[in-house]
Amino acid sequence: MPRPIQATIHTQALRHNLEVARRAAPDARVWAVVKANAYGHGIERAFDGLRGADGIALLDLDEAQRVRNLGWRGPVLLLEGVFDQRDLELCSRLGLWHTVHCEEQINMLAIHKTNEPHRVFLKVNSGMNRLGFQPEQVRSAWTRLNALPQVDEISLMTHFSDADGPKGIDAQMAIFKAATDDLPGERTVSNSAATLRHSGPGLVSDWVRPGIAVYGSAPDYPEHSSADWGLQPTMTLAAKIIATRAIDTGASVGYGSTFVADKPMRIGVVACGYADGYPRLCPTGTPVLVDGVRTRTVGRVSMDMVTVDLDPVPDAHMGSEVTLWGRAANGAVLPIDEVAVCAGTVGYELMCGLALRVPVVVAD
Ligand SMILES: *Cc1c(COP(=O)(O)O)cnc(C)c1O
What we know:
By secondary structure, this protein is an alpha/beta fold. 25% of the residues lie in helices and 25% in strands. The chain has 11 helices and 19 strands. The protein has helices at residues 11-24, 35-39, 43-50, 61-69, 87-94, 103-110, 138-146, 170-180, 192-198, 336-342, 347-352; strands spanning 5-10, 29-33, 55-58, 76-78, 97-100, 118-123, 151-157, 187-190, 207-208, 235-247, 252-253, 259-260, 265-270, 287-290, 293-298, 306-309, 321-327, 333-334, 360-363. Helix 6 links the parallel strand 5 and strand 6. Helix 1 (11-24) packs across helix 3. The two termini are 25 Å apart. Pyridoxal-5'-phosphate binds at residues 33, 35, 79, 159, 191-192, 209-212, 219. Its EC number is 5.1.1.1. This is Alanine racemase. It catalyses: L-alanine = D-alanine.
C-alpha cells in the first residue's frame, strides 16, 4: 500500500470561486491566473474547474503551451511578457497575448517576423516598482508600439502593491489614470484583493486577474477569512494516522523535545511532513482536523511525519483521516490560510509548495 497521504483538487470549488470573483466585478471579464502550475494545483487538474473563465493568465511559455494542448482556444496572457526574442515565435504560433513592460521587449517586437499582429498589454509601473514603464514613459512606449506592424491592439495594465491592506489602491490608481488618461484600449488592474475589495464604479477595469481567490484563499487574511468572502477550498491535503501512543506528564515529543506534555495524553503520528510540503515552521498548536474534528499539532514537524494531539478525538486510531488543510470527509473545513499564518506565511506558498511526491486526485 502506498504511503497514506493524498491531495485532492476540488473542481466544483474552483468553479464556485471563479463565480465569486465574477460577481465581485460583474462588468469585467475574468482572467483565471494559472501561473506556478495553477498555484500548485496542476494546470491540467485545475483546468476543468477554470474553463468558465474568459481568459487564462500565466507567465511561463511552457505552461501556455500546456493550456493550448488542453484545447483552450480563448485568450492566454503572458503576465511578464517575453523573456527572449525567440519567445515571440511561440506567441505568434500559439496566439498568445503578452505584456510589454520594458523597452527591450518593444525592440524584440520591432524585429519579430509575423503574419499575425500581436495583442499586447502595456504595463505601467504605478508604484509596485517591479515591472512596467514609468508613468512619464508610457505615452512614448504606446506611440512606439502603435507604430509597429507587429502590434494589433494595445491594452493597458498595472499591478497593485497594497490592494489587500490599509494603504489600498487609490494612489496607484491615480498614477495609472494620469499616465493613461487619453490612451485608448482596454484596462486591467485588479488582482484578487483588488477584485474583492475595490471593485466599484470608480475602478475602470475591463479585465480582472484573480489568482489566489480562485484557489479559495482569502487575499486579505486575517482581516477577512475565505468564509467571509464565500470562497471554498480547492485543495485538500490529507493523510492518515500511522501510529498512536499514550504519553505521560513530562514526556517530550519529536526532535528537539520542543513539546513537553503537561498531563497524560494520547498523540497520533501522521504520514505527512515537510518533504510533502507541510511547513516545518508550523509550531505546536497549528490547527489540524482528525476525522474532521479540530485539534492541534504537537512538537516539530519532521520530514515524513507530524504528531498531533488526540485528546479531542478519543476514537481516533491508526488509519484515521487527518486533514492538514482543506475539507475533511465530514465536510469540516480547515482554511489553508489558518495553517499558513502559523508558519509565518501565506496560503499561496503552501499551495505552490505541495511536494511532487504527494499523489493528487481530482474530485468533483
Ligand atoms: C499573480 C498575479 C496576479 C494574481 O494575483 P493574486 O494575488 O493571486 O490574485 C494578478 N496579476 C499579476 C500581474 C500577477 O502576477
